[in-house]
Amino acid sequence: MNTDLIIPGRYLDNYDIASLAKHAMEDIDPGFASKVAEGDVIVAGRNFGCGSSREQAPLVLKELGVGAVVAESFARIFYRNAINVGLPVVACADASLIEDGDTVEIDLAAGTLSSSSGLESGFPPLPPKLLEILEKGGLVSALKERFRPCRPGTGR
Fold this sequence. Notes:
The protein is an alpha/beta fold. It has helices at 3-6, 17-21, 32-35, 56-63, 76-85, 128-135, 139-146, and strands at residues 41-44, 68-71, 89-91, 104-107, 112-115, 120-122.
C-alpha cells in the first residue's frame, strides 16, 4: 500500500487535514473515510506506506480516528512519519492472521498483540523515546512539553 493510495496526490494542494481525510483510501475503497470508526486498526501486508514521503498519509489516518496500523513491514519514512504524528504502528510478521472484524489488543511497551480470533503474537517493543512521542500525541507535542519555558525562580 503506497502513500498515493492512502491519500491521492491530486488532493495535496489542500492543507486542511480534515478535508484531506475525506479522501483517504478512496482509490481502493471509496467509502473508507465514512466507514472507519474511532480506534479501528488497519491491518496490512509488507511495505505499508511505501512511495513518497508525504506526512499527510499518516495524518489523514489519525484524523479519521485509526487507532493503529499493523503490518508485516513498513516503509521507513512512513513508519517514522506515523510516530511523529502520534499514530501507533506495529510491525508484526503474523499480521495476515488477523481476521476482518477482529478486535485487536496491542501493548506497545510489552510488544504483544492479540486478536479476538485467537492470535497471540509478539513484536519488538517500542523504545521508551518512541512511546513517549506517541503518548504525547506526536513529536511536536512531545517537544513542546519538553522545552516549555521555565517558570521564573522554579528551575522547571
